[in-house]
Specification:
Blueprint: H1 2-16, H2 25-39, H3 44-55, H4 66-69, H5 77-83, H6 86-94, H7 103-109, H8 130-144, H9 156-165, H10 173-184, H11 187-192, H12 198-219, H13 232-245, E1 248-256, H14 258-265, H15 267-282, E2 289-294, E3 297-303, H16 307-326, E4 335-343, H17 349-365, E5 371-373, H18 374-377, H19 385-399, H20 410-427, E6 432-440, H21 448-465, E7 471-476, E8 479-484, H22 492-506, E9 512-520
Parallel strand pairs: 4-5
Antiparallel strand pairs: 1-3, 1-4, 2-3, 6-8, 6-9, 7-8
Length: 523
C-alpha cells in the first residue's frame, strides 16, 4: 500500500512540475485537508485516507493540454469546458484503486459547489461526499494563497473575505467555520512553514528537473519559423511571468497593410515584411520578451524601462522598419502601429493586454504608423472622432492615385472613393464615408480566430444591407469603411441599425460591440 501511494504521489508531483506555479499544490492541499479533518474529530485512519485523496485530486489534469493549463489569459468557453473534464478523467484513471476509500468519487466531485452550481454533476449539499467538500475548500485556499501566472498571491484578509463570502454557496458552511478558526489561530501559517523532509524534497526536485528538461526540449519547437519569435502560447506565458517579477512596458504591435500586401503582391511579399519585422524585434538591444500573436500582430514586453526609454525604442523601431520597406517596392506601404502600457508587478496580464490593445486601435483609428500609451487615450475627447475620420478620408484621396494591375479590397476602394468624390463635385450631390469599428468588450482579450469570425460576420451583415451602388472594404484588423451613395443623413442610423441587427443574428460571441461614425464626403 505504501509503495502504491508513493508511486501515485510521484505521478501527481510530475504533473505539477509542468508548471512552476502549481509545484507542491497537492501536498499542501493534502495537509490542509488533514488539518480540517482532525479538527472535525476524525480518526487517524480517516485523516490518512482524505490526505491520500487530496494528493491525487488533480491527477486528471494529465489529460488536459499544457497550453490550456498554463494559459495566462482568460479561457474561452471551449477551453473551460475542456478543463472541466479533469475530474472525470481523474476518476477514470483511479477507478481500479481500491486501497483508498472514496478515492474515485472524491476526485470526481472536488469541483462541486455546496449550492449545486459546480461540476461535473451539479451535486448539492450532502450529496457531495464530505471528503470532497473538505478538499474543495483546501484546494481553493491554496489557489488563492499561491502566485499564479495571471495574478499575484491574494492577501490574508482578501482570502478570508472570499471564503466568508462563498460559505453556503461554494463551500460547506460548517467546514468553512472550522477553516476560518484555523486561519485565525495561526494553525495554517505553522503548517505552511513546516520543513519538508530532505528525502521527499530530493524526490520532488529530481522529478521537477526531469520534467523541466523535457519541457525545454519541447519548447524549442514552439517558435514561428517565419519570424524566429516564440508562438503566442509560449510568448504570453513568459511575458505574464516576467510581468509579475518586474515593472516594464507591454507593447501590442501591429504591422499595418499586411492584407493589402498579400492581396496585391502575394504572400511571399507579406512573408518578407514579417520576417524583417521579426529580425528587428529580436535585435532590440535590451532585455525583452516578444512573440508573434498571429497574422500581423505581435506582443512585446520590455522589463525595467521608463516611458522615455520606451518612446525611444519605439521611434527607432518604426524608423528602422520604414528604412527597410522603402527599399522594397512590394512592401513599401507596410507601417507599424503600437499600443503601450507601463506596467507594475501588481498588474493582471490579461487586463494589461486589453489596455495595450485599446491603445493600439486608437492609433489605427488616427492614421496608423504611430504609437500611443494607454493612459494618453483614457480621457480622450470623443468630439475628435470626426477629425480622425477626416484624416482617413484625406489618406483615401491620396491613395486613389495607385497605378498598376487592378486588385480588390482596399486598393479598389480607394479608386472608387476618388471617382465618387469627383462625381459629387460635378453633380453637387452628397455621399457619406462611414467607419464601423468592432470594439472589444471590457476585460476581454479574444483570440485572433474569434476576431476574424466577428469581422467576417460584420462583412456579411454590411453586404446584405447596403445597396449595389454602395462600396465597402475591410480597413483594419477591427474596422470596415463604407461609402453610402446619396442617402439623406437621417437614413444613416436606420441603415446602420439594420447592419448591426444582422450582425448579432450571425455572431454568437458577445466579445465585441460594433460602433460607427460618419462624415460627408462633400468636405
Amino acid at each position: 500500500k505504501k509503495i502504491t501511494l508513493q508511486m501515485m504521489q510521484s505521478l501527481s508531483t510530475t504533473i505539477e512540475a509542468k508548471d512552476e506555479y502549481t509545484k507542491g499544490h497537492s501536498r499542501r492541499v493534502a495537509q490542509y485537508a488533514a488539518l480540517i479533518a482532525k479538527n472535525l474529530g476524525w480518526t487517524n485512519q480517516e485523516i490518512e485516507n482524505i490526505k491520500s485523496c487530496a494528493y491525487l485530486h488533480d491527477i486528471g489534469k494529465i489529460g488536459i493540454p499544457d497550453q490550456i493549463l498554463n494559459k495566462p489569459g482568460q479561457l474561452t468557453d471551449e477551453e473551460f469546458n475542456l478543463i472541466k473534464q479533469h475530474p472525470i478523467i481523474g476518476q477514470d484513471i483511479l477507478k481500479d484503486i481500491t486501497i483508498i476509500p472514496h478515492l474515485g468519487e472524491v476526485t470526481r466531485s472536488h469541483h462541486e459547489h455546496y449550492d449545486g452550481t459546480g461540476y461535473p454533476d451539479g451535486l448539492k449539499g450532502n450529496e457531495i461526499p464530505i471528503q470532497a467538500r473538505i478538499i474543495t475548500l483546501a484546494d481553493s485556499y491554496d489557489a488563492m494563497n499561491s502566485k499564479r501566472i495571471y495574478r499575484n498571491t491574494l492577501s490574508f484578509e482578501q482570502i478570508k473575505e472570499e471564503i466568508k463570502k462563498n460559505a453556503g454557496t461554494q463551500f460547506d458552511p460548517k467546514i468553512t467555520n472550522v477553516f476560518l478558526k484555523l486561519m485565525d489561530d495561526g494553525s495554517l501559517f505553522n503548517l505552511e512553514h513546516e520543513i519538508i523532509p530532505v528525502q521527499e524534497n530530493t524526490i520532488d526536485k529530481f522529478i521537477s528537473d526531469v520534467v523541466s528538461t523535457i519541457k525545454n526540449q519541447e519548447e524549442t519547437k514552439n517558435y514561428d519559423y517565419l519570424t524566429g519569435l516564440p508562438v503566442r502560447s509560449i510568448g504570453q506565458k513568459y511575458i505574464a511571468i516576467a510581468m509579475q517579477k518586474t515593472t516594464g512596458c507591454l507593447i501590442f504591435l501591429d504591422m499595418d497593410n499586411l492584407k493589402k500586401i498579400n492581396d496585391v503582391y502575394g504572400h511571399k511579399a507579406g512573408d518578407r515584411a514579417l520576417k524583417s519585422l521579426g529580425k528587428l524585434l529580436l535585435d532590440i538591444p535590451l532585455d525583452k520578451i516578444t512573440c508573434r500573436m498571429g497574422g500581423d500582430e505581435f506582443l512585446l514586453f520590455l522589463p525595467k524601462v521608463s516611458i522615455e526609454e520606451t518612446e525611444t525604442i519605439m521611434s527607432d523601431l518604426i524608423e528602422q522598419f520604414k528604412g527597410i520597406v522603402e527599399n522594397d517596392h512590394e512592401i513599401h506601404f507596410a507601417t507599424l502601429s503600437a499600443g503601450m502600457l507601463m506596467t507594475t508587478k501588481n498588474d493582471n496580464f490579461e487586463d494589461a493586454c486589453s489596455k495595450a490593445d485599446k491603445a493600439l486601435y486608437y492609433v489605427k483609428q488616427n492614421g496608423k504608423n504611430n504609437y500611443s500609451f494607454y493612459n494618453q487615450i483614457q480621457h480622450k475627447n470623443t468630439s475628435n472622432n470626426t477629425a480622425d475620420l477626416k484624416q482617413i478620408a484625406k489618406s483615401l484621396q491620396t491613395s486613389g492615385s495607385y497605378t498598376g494591375a487592378l486588385s480588390l479590397d482596399f486598393r479598389e476602394f480607394t479608386r472608387h472613393y476618388e471617382y465618387i468624390h469627383q462625381l459629387m463635385v460635378r453633380n453637387h450631390s452628397c455621399c457619406y464615408l462611414v467607419m464601423v469599428t468592432m470594439e472589444t468588450v471590457e476585460d476581454t482579450l479574444p483570440y485572433i480566430e474569434k476576431i476574424e469570425e466577428a469581422l467576417t460576420h460584420m462583412g456579411e451583415a454590411i453586404h446584405k444591407n447596403i445597396r449595389k451602388v454602395d462600396v465597402c472594404t475591410r480597413y483594419s484588423a477591427m474596422q470596415y469603411l463604407i461609402i453610402l451613395s446619396q442617402p439623406t443623413e437621417a437614413e444613416i442610423p436606420n441603415i446602420m441599425t439594420r447592419i448591426f441587427m444582422q450582425y448579432y443574428k450571425l455572431q454568437d460571441s458577445q466579445n465585441f460591440t460594433p460602433t460607427y461614425e460618419y462624415i460627408t464626403m462633400k468636405d
